[in-house]
Amino acid sequence: MPASRYARVTPPLAAFLLIGSAPALAQQASATLDTISVEASRARQPAPGPASGGPLATPVAAPSGPAGAVGVGSATSGGGGGPTGVVGYTARGSAAATKTNTPIIETPASVSVVTREQLNDRNVQTLNEAIAYTPGVSSNVFGFDPRFDAFYIRGFEVTNVGIYRDGLRQPSAPFAIPRVEPYGLDALTILRGPAAGLYGLGAPGGIVDVTSKRPTSVPFGEIWLQRGKYDRYQGAFDLGGPIEQSDGQLSYRLTGLFRQSDSFLPGGREDRNVIAPAITWRPDAETSLTVLAEYLDNTVPGNASFYSNFADPRFQKTNLFSGDPAFQDYTTRQYRVGYAFEHRFGPDVVFRQNFRTYNVFGDLRYTQIDTISPDLQTAGRSNGRITNALDTLSLDNQLETRFTTGPVAHTLIGGIDYTNSRYTDRRGFLVVPDLQIGGLIRPNYGAQFIPTPALTGASRQRIEQLGTYVQDQARIGSLILTLTGRHDQVSQLAESYSAPAATGPTIANDRAFSYRVGANYLLTDFIVPYASFATTFAPQLGFDRNGAAFQPTTGEQFEAGIKTQMPGRNVFLNMAVFDITQSNVLRPDPVNPILFQAAIGEVRSKGAELELTANLGPGINVLASYSHVDIRTTRNPGAPETVGIPLSGIPANTVTAFANYAFQPDTDLFGLSLGGGIRYAGTSPANEVPGSFGNSTVTLFDAVAAYDFVKADPRLKGMRLQVNVNNAFDRRYFNCQAGACYRGQPRQFFASLIYRW
């Protein structure tokens, strides 16, 4: 099992990770029905400006407001409602970085949007796949591991602290991690760099905010039937529209997905059932209430690793699967219910309240290989069972107003948010019968009974966070200043109640102030340089050898770049450089490294990113990116030999590109769409010790072809056949991180029959 998965997480839920590190387990109103890219849930918002206008063009039908006020559209389009001005793979506005609907080109941070059309074209199956073409993101660090959505941004892991849904953070525990079903999303927004000035505790690398599908005022429907490799059968549906006899006040959305599938892992299942209803009530033009809910049941293998000889300094990789079908299931059951409320008091004042309650239960059963006999005939094994239950309540209140003071136009937002997470962990472990491996030729998987260990260990935790924030986006001529500040109070309680080693509760309280200062200067309407400085923090539960609580880990980033938009076209180019330092990182105590840790480490990440997103015309969408990330330990008194060594598993250089073309009605090939992508990851260290070997470069190719049957017969309008292939040349590769090696996903293909109306 990947011991490194949680080794460098900078959590607000650091306590979760400490308790969770078991032996060997720490690890415009519009409706484009061709793609079901529907945004009519924001039907009362103004449509984005015409394509021929720049980002500052006056929005169509926008309510009157202060001249030159920052933002696109009315003041009612922020607060987790997703990107705006979406055309193909491009988006003009996003609320993720500012909690107001700000043009991306005017945001003093790096922001990328993955639209619904892109998700459809690539037939995305996981969150990791969804962000695989985003600059600065390392989504393949742990190879093929369907148990988690685990990835890094700018070298920092964000799995436990950086995933948001509809503007609210999704806390997680080691094995109660909320899963994200991409079919249930309208879009994803990736904000790179510290976001604590608005969102509170988190990792320095950034966040990913996913936007749930919402009700529409335009009736539509979709059915998606899919067949894939490894006996994959999947069906999905998406329905929405106004509710009859509601006088236009009520609309609904119902999304579901059902999958039964094996995987290339022996005996490994990838089953999932999801149902997500939503309803919107709009009693008048100024008020809306959207209720969002979901139930998800997910079963995947409990172990996704292949045995590696850790005693070998080269970390010899093998094709020997470490799990066993006789005892290896990881089941996650989760439900969420919440709402997004918005009321506009006038054209320039709006109040929003976002609320959600989340419950996640994870039941992990795994078997793993610990040793191999010298004659390669048997493998010594152990197993474990871990159950995690996580209950989270989140509330965010926002008040946004727009006004002018002399020559300065302001967009001011203030808010108070609250998060309460309660987590329970139970676990047990056993030594189990050896696996007969026959010289690594024919392991007898599933041939032996493997007992279920009793749950003998138990612990619980509670984390409460209360944050107050304020942000002013002030525009003076061509200069836009973004000033953000936030104060957080965090209380953490942890307690072990396992006999006979029960311990009393340990309590830690932290307070922190985080901020961001950013500036954009409009050289022209389409060329905007920017610079920003931002800070972040995350509490760390535990005590050093002197009995003192750990100081929170803190981070700061300087970022500068240039954003451009081609006049009259949906072509966007972002260039950025960044320098991030994270301090108070937990490292082994120099005096007693065996028993204690100390908040004495420091990590620095420097790099550059280049991103192109374009809709070059009807049916022509292009993505391209380059990233350079140099992340190293810069201070570690407990192990000074690691200073200056890059962190393992993070490619120093990545290049991605994806393009898709749909032939138009005036061509002989109308109805046909063709596309493909390339994902290149450069070398990286395999471990953080001097002289460690490195991971090789990896280049993967993806492809898509689709045909709309309306060309063959007008009566088949809405019927579409689509074939996707990932890792088309079946590249076999491993990625090693912190000395543990993970196998990449082999070639996978999907054939989909889609009907839309």
TrEMBL record:
Biased composition (Low complexity): 53-67
Pfam family, one: TonB_dep_Rec_b-barrel
Motif TonB box positions after renumbering to this chain: 35-41
The name this protein goes by in its record: TonB-dependent siderophore receptor
Bias kind Gly residues: ranges: 68-78
Predominant place of localization: membrane
Chain ranges of the TonB-dependent receptor plug domain: 104-207
Species whose genome carries this gene: Methylorubrum populi (strain ATCC BAA-705 / NCIMB 13946 / BJ001) (Methylobacterium populi)
